[in-house]
Amino acid sequence: MNRILVTGALGQIGSELIPALRERYGEDSVIASDVRMPQRGDVIADGPFERVDVTNLRQVQAAVERREADTVFHLASLLSAVAEERPQIAWEVNMGGLYNVLEVARAQGCAVFFPSSIGAFGPTTPRERTPQDTVQRPTTMYGITKVAGELLGDYYHARFGVDTRGLRYPGLISYVAPPGGGTTDYAVDIFHSAVRHRRYICFLAPDTRLDMMYMPDALHAAIALMEAPAERLVHRNAFNVTAMSFTPAELAREIVRHVPDFEIEYEVDPVRQAIADSWPDSLDDSAARAEWGWSPQYDLESMTADMLEQLHARRRLLREKDA
Ligand SMILES: NC(=O)c1ccc[n+]([C@@H]2O[C@H](COP(=O)([O-])OP(=O)(O)OC[C@H]3O[C@@H](n4cnc5c(N)ncnc54)[C@H](O)[C@@H]3O)[C@@H](O)[C@H]2O)c1
Fold this sequence. Notes:
By secondary structure, the protein is α/β, with parallel strands linked by helices. It is built from eleven helices and twelve strands. A seven-stranded parallel beta sheet has the order 3-2-1-4-5-6-10, sandwiched between helices. Strands 7-9-11 form a three-stranded mixed beta sheet. A two-stranded parallel ribbon has the order 8-12. The protein binds nicotinamide-adenine-dinucleotide. Nicotinamide-adenine-dinucleotide binds at residues 7-8, 10-14, 34-36, 52-55, 75-77, 79, 93, 97, 115, 117, 169, 171-172, 179-180, 182, 184.
């Protein structure tokens, strides 16, 4: 990876992946891109940026050629709840965008990282210790684009030799950029509400168990997979990865250990609850552990402590700036 283009770079993952990649590979070697322009003061605005709409093949091609990219981290996508609101656009962005990236990668000889999701599973998938290779019959447009994306990645590798690699991320928890409209967003929003209001109204039911991961582990996973020796990879695309599995009630209990007067209430959103109910409770990530040494650093306790510490520190900084 000498020159890296990141699509959808202004989102929840890109906002932290870009600085991590720039620190590792050098500022000028990592080109952020998005359909939106960065705001002033945005960390991403410090380095190279291209405006790229991934549904436009020419724009993807022009950015890869101009910047001489040899690797694309393809993050541009509509997330699960947004995709359910706008399924036609989700197909266009999620499938059309990936197809364009793979076509440009085929022509230019680029490697491609593509994040799939626990959304690639469905109600007929085994819910506990969900195996790496199993039934995938998702019932959401998001999930359908993720399964098709996993298969398309495999196809481009087998048919054209493109070095495609990917992970099935669980819900990601972070504090730098807001989440982009997924079903697991509650696990981020709850921390902001705990720090600001000591109260949170949760859109999922208290016993909804889902896999989750703290952002530092998610970044580490992406970079470690892309740097892994190709000959060790049996699965290549769509590795199950997870770090923890909890319910809203369990997360709230953990937050109470740090914020004793924190209270949670539940107003279930039927659309997001139905999506969550169709996803696994916990993934088996042994293939990722065996093939490229995956091992998460954060569990529920350490993630909660760090999230609260970081958010309190950010609030203190803002107050000092205002004073
Ligand atoms: N965040 C999670 O919890 C999570 C979990 C599993 C998988 N993923 C996957 O990781 C990837 C990135 O997720 P994220 O959370 O950073 O998403 P996000 O919604 O926060 O960011 C997506 C970015 O894509 C951009 N975008 C949208 N349409 C575009 C287009 N046509 N051209 C270029 N850019 C466009 C948006 O402006 C946004 O900045 C997605 O593929 C997502 O499905 C995320």
